[in-house]
Amino acid sequence: MARTVFCQYLKQDAEGLDFQLYPGDTGKRIFDNISKQAWAEWQQKQTMMINEHKLNMMDPAHRQQLEEAMVGFLFEGKDVHIEGYQPPAN
């Protein structure tokens, strides 16, 4: 049976993640408050950000930069700025 969470990103009830995908307190906060849909949107942004900024996930400073962007995106309504990226027009 799917879990339902009140997604802080979507501002509505939505299907929650099946398990905690990110470590620590931030991971628990995501698991408790972020939906599968919102996580999938973040994953796309994260991939673009890693590629755009040539982030190395072995570098603690790069991981910190990515985590700050993730928390801003999922919880604070901050979009991730990707140089030259234009979202598709609806």
UniProtKB/TrEMBL annotation:
The lineage of its organism: Bacteria, Pseudomonadati, Pseudomonadota, Gammaproteobacteria, Alteromonadales. The keyword Protease does not apply. Coiled coil: none annotated. Transmembrane segments: none annotated. This is Probable Fe(2+)-trafficking protein. Keywords: Iron. Signal peptide: none annotated. It comes from Neiella marina. Belongs to the Fe(2+)-trafficking protein family. It comes from the Bacteria.
